[in-house]
């Protein structure tokens, strides 16, 4: 790990995710910012600094894929790890095809999460 | 002495005479001589005979001789010539004079002038028959006016005198009849009876009667009623018999016709079969119309215009069979023509009648020579058949025959019509009976004042009584379930007030089985003002059982519906559960990491463990909510806050709605009164309406997918919940179908949600309906009484099973 801790941003409307996930990632040595919606994330100054985006797929208003498209339009090439509670096995390939690094189905293990983040950092 | 006596005798005011035992006159008193103008010498011996009217003399001499022989007394009348040549009627009284030894010594005679008295009724009555001319004159004057045959007959049975009617009937003269007996004219079959009565009367001397047929001059026998009275002289000797004979032929015929009519009407009334009745009718006519050999009744089949044998007891069999089923026409024998033209057809001689060409040989072979056919009409004037009389000789109907046939065709018409009516009645009764059987519905009549009961067969079957029983109120009460007897008495009390009845009760039958009855009755006053109930009894036992079965099926269906919505919510449920699970795993991982560092981050670990527990509870709550909503549980009633129940449903479905991009706006009324009902079932309905609203907008991309869920209190103490969507709306033509089971507008939908929802709402005494919005979409609403209400009866409650009360603490978290 580098001295400057890489920023991982989390966008999820579910409060418990926003509570628990940052703590875990901090324990693992990442810098973490959590946002309750895509709009909030886009409005923040974290977009340019984010090395990895953990993005909930289903949210009121702008959804995860919507944000992905928006970031592409803005040429913000941030590796994205989708997380979803609605997920099934058919979702993952479709999401990966759309350019995501990984798609994690809630609930996911720490290992799967860290593995995905590792992949994301290697992409860059 | 003798002279003295002579003077006395001469002085007597009467004409007195004596004769020797041999009849020679030996004395005539002075008055006799003065009256006749004859001297005693002239008159003695046979000289007196010149004073007797020549017409009367033979009888006088005849009787005088007979009394001389018998030595008895004699009374007779005869005309005696007066001195001036005028004749006056005298009564001759002659008696024998005997001596002490009994020896006849003289005849004494007294002649009394009765000419004046002859006119007097008393004299006539007393004496006229003593004088033949008076007798005859008198007899004729009376007897000729008597409307009947009057015969004066001597004790030997010989005809003495007859009135004019006798001469006319027998077409004879008095001379020809002289010495004849009335028995000669009596029909040979009747003679023995007539003679027996005659002899009996001779012995007893009492009046007698008989009825016998007397031969008319033309050889026709007619029935006469004869009454005979004895006529006696002063000494009580029977001298003549009077016979009064009255023609009762028409009467007897009319009586026979009447008796026959009565019998046939009785047969018709008692429902005797048509062939039997018509056969009897034929036999009656054959008896009455003696000029005809046989008769037949043919019945017209209106369908094909053919005549079929109705009755022909005496018609030759071969003939009857040969003509059975021939078609009527303008010239088809007597019957075919009569039926065709609708009027009487007389073929007085079949051998020459042009209408008989086709059947001539057939008829003649069977010895039928004349046929007279009369159509039988219905009351509406339609030809129903024909009545035909056949004769073996060329014949035409007499007036009497016409009278008989007019009567019997009328009777035949009644019999045929009655038969048709009864057939129709039987048929409709059969239909009714079948219908009653099929529908398990019996009918009954009840005259309240007399307590008479009339039950249809099906009613008997329902009550399990034999239809031959006469049903009493007690018998009915005996069958009523003991728990329903009071109810039945209440119904009876209502009935006696003239109110209509509509109630249900149970029967407890001897077998121990129980039947559920639905009884509806309508009271009417008959023309006498008596209250009468006509009603129907339906055995609804099976309906009850099938209601329960249907309820069970509905319950299964409701469960299927729930499970179906569970399927629809799977993603939502997964989300609801996975969300906290995700938190738990993440927190637990964090916790472990915090404890693994040196020094361990105890505070951080405690915090993450706390969150783990919280998320665990959250997951548990979701599971509890799901279980209560989707488990197959029995119905319960409790006080339900519809707002709270709605919020729970929203909580459960929110993520599903979000996924479908539905924007839900709850507009829940404040201070909404609680309703009484089954919370889970009501939530089931709300969920169903919400999911339907969401589904209806799945294809909508040009406008926001808004759903408004509203609660409010209606004016009439009802609480309403409405779900308004902006979807495709409802087709007004199909709005009722929406609530039918298995009707669906969705691909993959089962079409049971709304039907189950409606049955749930109805079990809450509520109403569920759909309406097209002014803008896009539809609004589905239900309203239920705010309660407390008793839930509907078990029969429609299959789906509303009692369920354990839900713990308020386990209610879902509101987002």
How would you explain this protein's 3D organization?
The complex is a heterodimer of chains A (124) and B (815). A 5-stranded parallel beta sheet of chain A has the order 2-1-3-4-5, with helices on both faces. Chain A is globular, with a radius of gyration of 13 Å. Chain A has 5 helices and 5 strands. Helices cover 40% and strands 21% of the residues of chain A. The mean pLDDT of chain A is 88. Chain A has one domain: Rossmann fold. Chain B is α+β, with helices and mostly antiparallel strands and 815 residues long. Chain B folds into 5 domains: 124 residues, Beta-Lactamase (2-Layer Sandwich); 104 residues, PAS domain (Beta-Lactamase, 2-Layer Sandwich), CATH 3.30.450.20; 172 residues, Beta-Lactamase (2-Layer Sandwich), CATH 3.30.450.40; 99 residues, Beta-Lactamase (2-Layer Sandwich), CATH 3.30.450.20; 187 residues, Histidine kinase-like ATPase, C-terminal domain (Heat Shock Protein 90, 2-Layer Sandwich). In chain B, the strands form 6 sheets. A 6-stranded antiparallel beta sheet of chain B has the order 13-12-11-16-15-14, sandwiched between helices. Chain B has a 5-stranded antiparallel beta sheet with strand order 2-1-5-4-3. The C terminus of chain B is likely disordered. The interface between A and B is medium-sized, with 22 and 28 residues.
């Amino acid at each position: 790990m580098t001295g400057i801790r890489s920023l991982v941003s989390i966008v999820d409307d579910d409060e418990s995710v926003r509570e628990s996930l940052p703590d875990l990632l901090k324990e693992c040595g990442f810098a973490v910012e959590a946002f309750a919606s895509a709009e909030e994330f886009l409005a923040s100054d974290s977009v340019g600094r984010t090395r990895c985006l953990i993005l909930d797929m289903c949210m009121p208003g702008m959804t995860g894929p919507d944000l992905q498209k928006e970031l592409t339009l803005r040429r913000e090439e941030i590796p994205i790890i989708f997380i979803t509670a609605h997920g099934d096995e058919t979702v993952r390939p479709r999401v990966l095809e759309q350019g995501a690094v990984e798609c994690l189905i809630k609930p996911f293990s720490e290992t799967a999460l860290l593995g995905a983040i590792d992949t994301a950092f290697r992409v860059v | 002495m003798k002279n003295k006596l002579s003077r006395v005798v001469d002085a007597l005011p009467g004409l007195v005479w004596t004769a020797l035992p041999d009849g020679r006159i030996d004395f005539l008193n002075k008055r006799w001589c003065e009256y006749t103008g004859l001297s005693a010498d002239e008159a003695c011996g046979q000289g007196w005979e010149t004073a007797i009217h020549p017409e009367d003399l033979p009888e006088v001499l005849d009787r005088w001789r007979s009394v001389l022989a018998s030595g008895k007394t004699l009374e007779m009348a005869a005309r005696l010539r007066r001195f001036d040549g005028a004749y006056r009627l005298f009564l001759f009284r002659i008696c024998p004079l005997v001596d002490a030894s009994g020896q006849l010594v003289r005849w004494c005679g007294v002649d009394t002038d009765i000419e004046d008295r002859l006119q007097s009724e008393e004299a006539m009555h007393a004496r006229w028959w003593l004088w033949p001319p008076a007798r005859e004159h008198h007899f004729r004057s009376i007897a000729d006016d008597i409307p009947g045959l009057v015969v004066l007959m001597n004790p030997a049975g010989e005809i003495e005198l007859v009135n004019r009617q006798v001469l006319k009937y027998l077409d004879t003269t008095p001379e020809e009849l002289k010495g004849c007996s009335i028995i000669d004219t009596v029909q040979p079959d009747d003679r023995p009876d007539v003679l027996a009565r005659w002899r009996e009367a001779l012995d007893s001397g009492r009046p007698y009667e008989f009825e016998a047929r007397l031969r008319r001059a033309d050889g026709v026998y007619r029935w006469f009623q004869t009454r005979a009275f004895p006529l006696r002289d002063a000494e009580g000797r029977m001298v003549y018999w009077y016979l009064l004979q009255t023609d009762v032929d028409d009467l007897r015929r009319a009586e026979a016709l009447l008796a026959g009519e009565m019998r046939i009407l009785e047969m018709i009334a008692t429902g005797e079969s048509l062939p039997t009745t018509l056969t009897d009718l034929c036999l009656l006519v054959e008896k009455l119309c003696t000029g005809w050999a046989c008769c037949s009744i043919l019945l017209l089949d209106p369908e094909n215009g053919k005549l079929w044998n109705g009755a022909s007891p005496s018609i030759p069999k071969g003939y009857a069979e040969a003509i059975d089923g021939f078609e009527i026409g303008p010239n088809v024998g007597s019957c075919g023509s009569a039926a065709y033209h609708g009027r009487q057809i007389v073929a007085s001689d079949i051998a020459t009648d042009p209408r008989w060409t086709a059947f001539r040989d057939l008829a003649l072979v069977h010895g039928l020579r004349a046929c007279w056919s009369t159509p039988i009409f219905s009351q509406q004037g339609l030809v129903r058949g024909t009545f035909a009389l056949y004769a073996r000789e060329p014949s035409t109907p007499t007036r009497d025959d016409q009278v008989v046939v007019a009567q019997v065709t009328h009777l035949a018409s009644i019999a045929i019509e009655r038969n048709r009516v009864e057939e129709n009645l039987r048929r409709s009764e059969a239909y009714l009976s079948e219908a009653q059987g099929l529908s398990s519905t019996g009918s009954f009549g009840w005259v309240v004042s007399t307590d008479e009961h009339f039950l249809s067969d099906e009613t008997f079957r329902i009550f399990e009584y034999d239809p031959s029983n006469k049903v009493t109120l007690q018998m009915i009460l005996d069958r009523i379930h003991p728990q329903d007897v009071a109810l039945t008495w209440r119904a009876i009390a209502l009935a006696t007030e003239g109110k209509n009845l509509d109630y249900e009760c149970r029967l407890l039958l001897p077998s121990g089985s129980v039947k559920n009855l639905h009884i509806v009755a309508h009271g009417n006053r008959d023309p006498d003002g008596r209250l009468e109930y006509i009603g129907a009894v339906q055995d609804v036992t099976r309906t009850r059982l099938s209601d329960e079965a249907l309820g069970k099926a509905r319950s299964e269906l409701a469960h299927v519906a729930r499970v179906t919505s569970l399927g629809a919510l799977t993603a939502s449920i997964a989300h609801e559960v996975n969300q906290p699970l995700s938190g738990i795993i993440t927190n637990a991982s964090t916790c472990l990491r915090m404890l693994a560092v040196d020094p361990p981050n105890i505070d951080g670990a405690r915090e993450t463990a706390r969150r783990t527990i919280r998320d665990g509870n959250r997951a548990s709550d979701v599971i509890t909510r799901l279980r209560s909503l989707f488990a197959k549980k029995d119905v319960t009633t409790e006080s339900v806050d519809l707002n709270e129940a709605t919020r729970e449903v929203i909580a459960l479905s929110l993520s599903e709605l979000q996924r479908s991009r539905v924007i839900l706006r709850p507009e829940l009324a404040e201070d909404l009164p609680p309703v009484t009902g089954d919370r889970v079932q009501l939530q089931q309905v709300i969920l169903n309406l919400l999911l339907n609203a969401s589904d209806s907008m799945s294809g909508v991309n040009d406008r926001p997918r808004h759903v408004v869920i509203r609660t409010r209190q209606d004016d009439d103490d009802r609480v309403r919940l409405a779900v308004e969507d902006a979807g495709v709306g409802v087709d007004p033509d199909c709005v009722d179908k929406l609530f039918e089971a298995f009707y669906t507008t969705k691909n993959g939908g089962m079409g049971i949600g709304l039907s189950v929802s409606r049955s749930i709402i109805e079990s809450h005494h509520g109403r569920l309906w759909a309406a097209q919005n002014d803008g896009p979409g539809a609004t589905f609403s239900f309203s239920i009484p705010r309660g407390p209400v008793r839930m509907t009866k078990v029969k429609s409650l299959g789906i509303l099973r009692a369920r354990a009360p839900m713990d308020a603490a386990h209610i879902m978290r509101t987002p």
